[in-house]
Amino acid sequence: MRLSLSLSCVLLASASLLLPALAQAGADAPPRDELAGSEAPLSANRARLLSLALDSVDAFPRELHAKNRAAAQELVVDTCLAIDEPALALEYAEHIDNWRRGLGYAKAATWFAERGEGERARAAIEQAEAVLARPDVANEQQWRRDRVRSHLACAFLALGEPQRAYGFLTDLDPKEYGPAAVMSARMVPSERFDDIVHDQDEILARGEFSTARASLELFVEFHGRFYGDEERRGLCEQRVRDSWIAAKMPADLRIDSLMQLAEHAVEHDDAAHALHLLDEGQTLLEAGAWLPRHRIPLLGRLAAARLDAGDLERARREADNALALFDEALPALTDIWRAETVRPVAEVYARLGDRAKALAVYRRALDEGARNPNSRPRAEDLSETLCSMARLDFAPDEALWTRIEALRAGLGDPW
After folding, report:
1. What is the CA angle 178-181-183, rounded to 5?
2. 402 Cβ contact partners less than 8 Å away, ≥ 6 residues apart
3. Four-point Cα dihedral 42, 155, 180, 98, nearest 10
4. How confident is the model at residue 171 (pLDDT cuts 50, 70, 90)?
5. Confidence band (pLDDT; 50, 70, 90) for 273?
């Protein structure tokens, strides 16, 4: 399904809404100093982790696993951007052969644009557009090209060029609207808030999943932007819940959105409300019938969110519960799911500052990810665990480094 031009305009706070924002010279946009700064100094630990993460998935045979290889490489690129290393992200994007290279460039362009680095943003945009123009990418499935176009639209919105952005949004697959909806919510003038809410209500009434999800993401972003306005904050939280009902969203997406809302509360020193939102997420989790490979990571992520909100005791207790559930479920867990199931629990212990426990659980993630006889899933799990450590700048001890190096050396046929 493609949206009409008029509905696209409404959903994405189109040029007609964004042009007044430009006239206000960004008066309603988040202060630049909150995003200011170029690359953060890259620690030797992170450099080593990221290099090994990329090297592990670069080893995939192209002829056998081209798509898996590119997707795994993209995760490393995303990790570089998450830790404010866009130059490294661009360098690593060069390793990607297919359309995902353009996606990496487009995401880096947005990183630069949001921080006022227009020249570097435009250079990355040109690289992304060059990938889109390649014959092999031009013949790709449309959703793949649309994903790149959506992130290019974000870059142009962040540069203050909504007309250029809109060129990438026309005829876009609604499934790819999310990033641009979020960026639009950051830029539309605050006085248009009520108009946007009215238009979003019409969209939610249609009950279409992709557009309702984009609406959810827009209201989550509005929630953080207008948190200090109690009335608007409450309205955004209600519209988030309305989107759940309108599109019959699964419980994991509902919990994800509650954790994002709680993050905004923490950012505004409102720990009590953050914990209230997380309690709601915990209730949703407890009410559902989950496979262990889905339940355990959510327990870990909720524990990490509680840690952010200052509830260290509950965070540790939930991490311990998640680890105990992992032990109980382990015999029935297929080996390809084990590492990703327990990895979020390791992250909680690392963030709690319990280095011994974090080392032990990360070691379990590495060992469980190494059980499959084929190298492809082993390499993916190794790379993802290394990226997890890099995001936290968690430094393995010598024993764990030895294990990591051995796992990388052991990758080979059969893939």
Report:
1. 110
2. none
3. -70
4. confident
5. very high
Looking at the fold, whether 196 and 254 belong to one and the same domain comes out as yes
Residue 244's domain comprises: 189-271
Domain assignment of residue 180, yes or no: yes
Reported as a pLDDT band with limits 50, 70 and 90, residue 120 is: very high
DSSP assignment letter at 42? P
Q: Which of 110-119, 174-183, 266-275 has the weakest average pLDDT?
A: 174-183
Same domain, residue pair 179 and 93? yes
pTM over 0.85, yes/no: yes
The whole-angstrom separation of Cα 267 and Cα 265 is: 5
My answer on whether 5 and 127 are in the same domain is yes
Q: Are residues 138 and 7 in the same domain?
A: yes
Number of structural domains found in the chain: 2
Mean of the per-residue pLDDT values of the chain: 91
Which range among 161-175, 341-355, 359-373 shows the weakest confidence by mean pLDDT? 161-175
Inter-CA distances, 167 with 15, 135, 250, 292, 406, Å: 10, 21, 32, 44, 49
Structure tokens that stand for 273 in this block: 């409300």
The DSSP string of 133-189 is TSHHHHTS-HHHHHHHHHHHHHHHHHHT-HHHHHHHHTT--GGG-HHHHHHHHHHS-
- The reply to whether 96 falls in a domain is yes
SS3 of residue 7 by DSSP? helix
Same domain (yes/no): 246, 144? no
User: Which residues have a Cβ under 8 Å from the Cβ of 319 and sit 6 or more positions away?
Assistant: 299, 300, 303, 345, 348, 349, 352
CA distance 210 to 275: 29
Query: Is position 251 within any domain?
Result: yes
Looking at residue 28, its amino acid is: D
How buried is residue 34: exposed, middle or buried, by Cβ count under 10 Å (0-12/13-18/19+)? Answer: exposed
- HSE, side-chain direction, 13 A CA sphere, residue 301: 21
Q: Which residue has the higher pLDDT, 26 or 70?
A: 70
Same-domain status, 169 and 209: no
Cα separation, 343 vs 341, in Å, equals 6
On whether both 164 and 224 belong to a single domain, the answer is no
- At residue 151, does pLDDT exceed 90? yes
